[in-house]
């Protein structure tokens, strides 16, 4: 089929219905197109053999002599040559995408059909085969048009020449009728060939568009997967920082304190620190298991947010000696996601107090404000120096709050303590859980 662009011939050019080369079949879509071309070639095989058989039967039937005369044998011989050329040259060229073979077959086709038409009017039956075959083997629309015109003109010349050679004297009117008949056949062939070519081109365009679309979808899916991996890695890093890392920090500080107490002869107090180390380690183990199982914070597994905040304050006081006041209000139907953000923020704020503030007192306050729940952590420590950069923990806190549609404010002055305040809309869905909107 002229103009179809699915093939890559061995020697150059782009035959119409040829099978795509191996380099055009790198994936499943290319394999599907290859299978389509194979089925198309099989269909043309059937069409060619059927037309050839009909032509042979017609030649024998129309002949009025028995045994067949020379003209009949010539026509049948032409069919035989055409069949051999198709099997050995034309079809092989179509399978390989080899323009040398396909064009060689077109030359044989034009010669055989035109010569058989000139030998006998019976041979002109082969024109049906010739015109259809031209559009199968033509490498382009232009080549198909040229081959069809050459076949029509050559057949006219050989038919007229055969008439003169046999002693007939065709009149001008006879030649005009011959030219008109051949023109009708040519026009029909060109129209049909152009229509089929256009259909093939559109099919190829759709196939190429589909392949590009599938490639784009695959690239988009890969991009989304990569983005998901990065987001999950960031989430896990933040979870580890907010839970395990803080717990290990507590273990280190408690161990250092216990060591100092042992050195000054206070074994009872050192034993208390060891008990605290054991409890922190157990809590860290629970958090690690929750992370592996993709659950929420272990502190919220069997407790409300208020209870978890009270425990957090008591543990902080026991580990650091800093007085912690926890003021809690009824926040109503705060979602699971909101509770996770608030608890993680409280943990991070107290961790910063432990590491940086040098405070003696901390106020942890939870309250409800106009459809939002607010958490404040205030300390009386050394405050924030101008230009103090935010650490990983505070940046992670901002990300959590922003993901839930909340706000975060951190303020402080040197020597006057620090205030961390965040507000989260009630019922917010965030990346940490399955809260309800």
Automatic annotation (TrEMBL):
The chain crosses the membrane at residues 46-66, 72-89, 105-138, 144-164, 176-196. It catalyses: ATP + protein L-histidine = ADP + protein N-phospho-L-histidine. It is found in: Cytoplasm. Its main location: cytoplasm. InterPro entries: HATPase_C_sf, HATPase_dom, His_kinase_dom, Sensor_HK_TwoCompSys, Sig_transdc_His_kin-like_C, Sig_transdc_His_kin_sub3_dim/P, Sig_transdc_His_kinase_ChrS. Residues 1-29 are annotated as: Disordered. Its EC number is 2.7.13.3. One of its GO terms (cellular component) is cytoplasm. Keywords: 4Fe-4S, ATP-binding, Cytoplasm, Iron, Iron-sulfur, Kinase, Membrane, Metal-binding, Nucleotide-binding, Phosphoprotein, Transferase, Transmembrane, Transmembrane helix, Two-component regulatory system. Its cofactor is [4Fe-4S] cluster. It is an enzyme of class 2 (transferase). One of its GO terms (molecular function) is 4 iron, 4 sulfur cluster binding. Residues 235-428 form the Histidine kinase domain. Coiled coil: none annotated. Member of the two-component regulatory system NreB/NreC involved in the control of dissimilatory nitrate/nitrite reduction in response to oxygen. NreB functions as a direct oxygen sensor histidine kinase which is autophosphorylated, in the absence of oxygen, probably at the conserved histidine residue, and transfers its phosphate group probably to a conserved aspartate residue of NreC. NreB/NreC activates the expression of the nitrate (narGHJI) and nitrite (nir) reductase operons, as well as the putative nitrate transporter gene narT. This is Oxygen sensor histidine kinase NreB.
């Amino acid at each position: 089929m002229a103009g179809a662009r699915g093939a890559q011939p061995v020697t150059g050019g782009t035959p119409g219905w040829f099978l795509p080369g191996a380099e055009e079949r790198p994936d499943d879509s290319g394999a599907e197109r290859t299978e389509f071309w194979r089925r198309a070639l099989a269909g043309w095989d059937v069409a060619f053999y059927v037309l050839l058989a009909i032509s042979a039967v017609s030649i024998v039937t129309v002949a009025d002599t028995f045994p067949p005369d020379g003209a009949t044998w010539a026509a049948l011989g032409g069919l035989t040559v055409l069949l051999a050329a198709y099997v050995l040259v034309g079809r092989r060229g179509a399978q390989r995408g080899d323009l040398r073979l396909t064009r060689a077959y077109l030359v044989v086709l034009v010669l055989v059909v035109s010569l058989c038409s000139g030998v006998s009017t019976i041979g002109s039956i082969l024109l049906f085969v010739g015109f259809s075959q031209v559009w199968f083997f033509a490498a382009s629309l232009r080549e198909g048009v040229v081959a069809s015109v050459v076949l029509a003109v050559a057949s006219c010349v050989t038919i007229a020449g055969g008439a003169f050679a046999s002693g007939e004297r065709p009149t001008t009117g006879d030649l005009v009728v011959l030219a008109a008949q051949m023109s009708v056949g040519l026009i029909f062939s060109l129209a049909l060939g152009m229509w089929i070519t256009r259909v093939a081109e559109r099919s190829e365009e759709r196939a190429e568009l589909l392949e590009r679309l599938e490639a784009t979808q695959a690239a988009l899916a890969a991009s989304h997967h990569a983005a998901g991996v990065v987001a999950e890695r960031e989430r896990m890093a933040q979870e580890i920082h907010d839970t395990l890392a803080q717990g290990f920090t507590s273990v280190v500080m408690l161990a250092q304190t216990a060591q100092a107490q042992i050195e000054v002869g206070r074994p009872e107090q050192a034993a208390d620190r060891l008990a605290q180390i054991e409890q922190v380690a157990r809590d860290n183990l629970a958090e690690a298991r929750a992370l592996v199982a993709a659950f929420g914070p272990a502190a919220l597994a069997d407790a409300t947010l208020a209870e978890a905040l009270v425990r957090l304050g008591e543990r902080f006081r026991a580990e650091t000696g800093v007085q912690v006041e926890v003021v809690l209000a009824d926040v109503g139907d705060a979602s699971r996601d909101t509770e996770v953000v608030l608890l993680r923020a409280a943990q991070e704020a107290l961790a910063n107090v432990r590491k940086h503030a040098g405070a003696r007192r901390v106020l942890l306050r939870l309250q409800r404000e106009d459809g939002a729940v607010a958490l404040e952590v205030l300390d009386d420590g050394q405050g924030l120096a101008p230009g103090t950069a935010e650490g990983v923990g505070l940046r992670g806190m901002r990300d959590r709050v922003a993901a839930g549609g909340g706000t975060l404010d951190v303020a402080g002055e040197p020597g006057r303590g620090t205030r961390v305040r965040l507000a989260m809309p009630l019922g917010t869905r965030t990346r940490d859980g399955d809260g309800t909107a």
